[in-house]
Design goal:
Helices cover about 55% and strands about 15% of the residues. The chain contains five helices and six strands. It has a six-stranded mixed sheet with strand order 1-4-3-2-5-6.
Length: about 260
């Protein structure tokens, strides 16, 4: 029987089904309590880092101060003893001129030693009140020493970062508090804000400024509707200056100049 020709098989391309897109996991929204708890935990950790560094720095400062005062106290005592011994050996006739010269040198050495000790302690004796005394900046010297040690240098850098984190969190918390009172931002320490006071009561002060409405804590010397220059100099102290007083003073100065 005749053989049948072989059939050519057509190549069939397999259709690949597109992958089923996976749904992105839904991140649950954090509650206000969770956000606040995380923020406070971060703030606490930052403060611990800062405190650890401050303890290291304080210990170094105290050690340097103690060593310097001890050394300079001994030097002053030696200078006083040298002068006292010399005064006890005053000649009657011969060698008096040389003795006077040495006496002056020893008195100068004693005063120099007393000034050096005053710089170390930060306390100026009455008889040296006219001397030029610059107290030692122990913190500056301690930082220079600690910066030479890789371990303490890393600790110092970590403290700097922690301070930035803490400051950012505290500013966020302060601005949130300001918004609760109807302001845009909370007043920053050391910044002077100029503008009209919109509200002043037991809940705080709202001031219209070029930076928006600024919140200040309650201030007793501030009245609604008046323009003020307000500046927080510390956590508890404020500089309050009515803007009108400045204008009047300036006008008086101008009149005096014209005269």
């Amino acid at each position: 029987a005749p053989k049948k020709p072989l059939e050519k098989h057509k190549e069939q391309s397999a259709r690949v089904a597109p992958p089923t897109p996976s749904k992105a996991p839904i991140t649950p929204q954090k509650t206000l309590q969770q956000v606040q708890a995380e923020r406070m935990a971060t703030l606490k950790h930052a403060q611990q880092t800062i405190d650890q560094w401050e303890a290291v720095l304080s210990q170094k400062v105290e050690a340097m101060k103690s060593a310097t005062i001890t050394k300079r106290t001994n030097a002053k005592d030696e200078a006083i003893k040298a002068l006292d011994d010399h005064l006890a050996k005053k000649p009657i006739f011969f060698g008096l001129e040389k003795w006077e010269t040495t006496k002056t040198e020893l008195e100068n050495a004693k005063e120099k030693a007393e000034i050096a000790l005053a710089e170390a302690t930060g306390d100026t004796p009455y008889h040296l009140r006219y001397a030029k005394i610059e107290p030692i900046d122990y913190e500056k010297h301690a930082l220079a020493k600690l910066d030479q040690n890789p371990a303490t240098k890393a600790q110092y850098e970590a403290s700097d970062k922690a301070k930035a984190v803490a400051q950012r969190i505290l500013e966020q918390m302060a601005n949130e508090k300001a918004k609760q009172h109807g302001a845009d931002i909370h007043a920053k320490q050391g910044v002077t804000y100029h503008g009209k006071v919109l509200r002043a009561d037991k809940n705080g002060v709202l001031q219209q400024t070029s930076k928006g409405i600024v919140y200040h804590p309650p201030l007793s010397k501030v009245e609604e509707g008046k323009n003020y220059n307000l500046k927080a100099t510390s956590n508890t102290m404020y500089e309050v200056q009515e803007a009108m007083e400045i204008k009047i003073a300036q006008k008086r100065q101008d009149k005096n100049i014209q005269r």
